[in-house]
Write a structure and sequence with these properties.
Layout: H1 2-9, E1 12-16, E2 27-32, E3 35-40, E4 52-56, H2 62-71, E5 76-77, E6 89-93, E7 99-103, H3 107-116
Parallel strand pairs: 4-7
Antiparallel strand pairs: 1-2, 2-3, 5-6, 6-7
């Protein structure tokens, strides 16, 4: 997961508990810009699902992120069909079967589109 976060998101590792356990298991903290990401050692998710965490990226960076994801050899999913104006998405699984999405649309644009229907 450390390689995953640093390679795709340029995350900066700011803490590692090592073998110490201050929480329920060893953990690491990362910063992606000002966003704090905490990861903990544990079991992989047994089944892949559509439940996911989404991050906003710019349309200009779409190709850059696609290349970074492909370079790690992780499974990528086809983007789902969208209504016009919602933006594009990259869906991919981490090494523990968690699904991530990188999306070029904005919340305002999405809500506007939903209110139109």
């Amino acid at each position: 997961m450390s390689q995953f976060l640093t390679s795709i998101f340029d995350a900066q590792e700011v803490y590692s508990s090592g073998k110490q356990t201050f929480s329920i298991s060893p953990e690491k903290f990362f910063l992606i810009n000002d966003l704090w990401i905490a990861i903990m050692e544990g079991e992989s998710v047994a089944e892949k699902t559509y439940s996911h965490v989404a991050f906003k990226i710019t349309e200009e960076d779409f190709g850059l992120y696609a290349q970074r994801i492909r370079s790690l050899g992780v499974e990528m999913k086809e983007g789902r069909s969208r209504t016009e104006g919602e933006g594009r998405s990259l869906y991919f699984y981490d090494y523990d079967n968690h699904l991530f999405e990188l999306h070029t649309g904005t919340l305002d644009r999405r809500l506007q589109r939903y209110h139109q229907t």
